[in-house]
Amino acid sequence: MSSPVSQESTRRRLSAQQAETVARLTDAAVDVLNDEGFDGLTVRVVAKRAGVAPATAYTYFSSKSHLVAEVFWRRLAEGVPDPDPALDPADRVAAVLRDVSLVVAGEGQLGGAVTVALLGTDPDVEHLRLRIGGFIRQRLARALEVDPENPGPVVDALEMLYAGGLVHAGMGHLSYEQTSERLVAAAHLLMEKQS
């Protein structure tokens, strides 16, 4: 794993060996989630599945919510590319929202776990929540070619759309694929109103 995301952690910069350990832990977390659900997930169980000492796992992750939030952050950062400048703004926005909403599609119980984890109060989760929100805001601002530091009301509305859509999907009311379709339709509607 050589992507910049694989070399960072909420707590510190990682060596290649540390990055491999974190990757094993995050992969094992998804396996445990699919087998045991969020209630059965613990840092200790994940450490055992990854072949890592629990004390080592806790040096990287303060809680199971932190671990799940890290999984989501990594999937998001690696799975949501910069907007395609060849597309018109509405299609760029739609692509960003589609990519964000599909990051955990087909991942078993990961989506619901992400919803629970990101609503937690763990300081490491809060750090990741801010990083995730900033990343999505930046992608949406780039799609609209506006300043991410002051993106305006359209980006604010789009952020509300995706946050509500992902919580809705995480609660199991819609699949992530259905959520993606609705987010894209809502984004197009919002963009039409702005024209």
Automatic annotation (TrEMBL):
Pfam families tied to this protein: TetR_N
Domain HTH tetR-type: 19-79
Gene3D superfamilies according to UniProt: Tetracycline Repressor, domain 2
DNA-binding region: 42-61
InterPro entries for the chain: DNA-bd_HTH_TetR-type_CS, Homeodomain-like_sf, HTH-type_TetR-like_transc_reg, HTH_TetR
Keywords from the UniProt entry: DNA-binding, Transcription, Transcription regulation
The keyword Kinase is assigned to this record: no
Hydrolase found in the keyword field: no
MF-aspect GO terms: DNA-binding transcription factor activity; transcription cis-regulatory region binding
This protein's name: TetR/AcrR family transcriptional regulator
